[in-house]
Description:
The protein is of the alpha+beta class. It is built from one helix and eleven strands, in the order H-E-E-E-E-E-E-E-E-E-E-E. The radius of gyration is 32 Å and the shape is rod-shaped.
Amino acid sequence: MGKNFPIVELSEEKGVAPVIGTVISIAIVFILTFLVSSVVFEEYGDSSHKKSPVAKLQIFFTEDGSSLEFEHDGGDPLFFDSSSLSVIMDINNTSYLLNDSALGTFEAGEKKILELNKSLQSPIELKPGDFVSVKVVDYESGSLITKRELEVKRQTVVVPK
């Protein structure tokens, strides 16, 4: 008599684990390739998406209230002599674009004074208790670099020179 071997049925199903592992590995390679290439080729991208400068600015009224003092506490240099940066002062719902070219190139650690009588186009009156908003805007990137709310401490009339 012969030996009886159990009959093993052949299954048509194949293992899916190797296929899933291969698909995940390929996806990881594509993702890593995309990330590395986006970092490496970032400088060659569309120049219209320029980064805005990042700077920590403090802005105060001078003691007599007729000028603004700017203090650059760190970050990128700011180029006020270019057309992309502007200083805007809002007083009582009226915005004034200041002539900020006197600030020139502004490096970290520097302090500069912006005289309002040389920066305004029309006279303004500042009264004690008024709040003034001073913004530095980068038009090239469309971003706000800093915004400070200042309280007027003394009566000042600024007449452009």
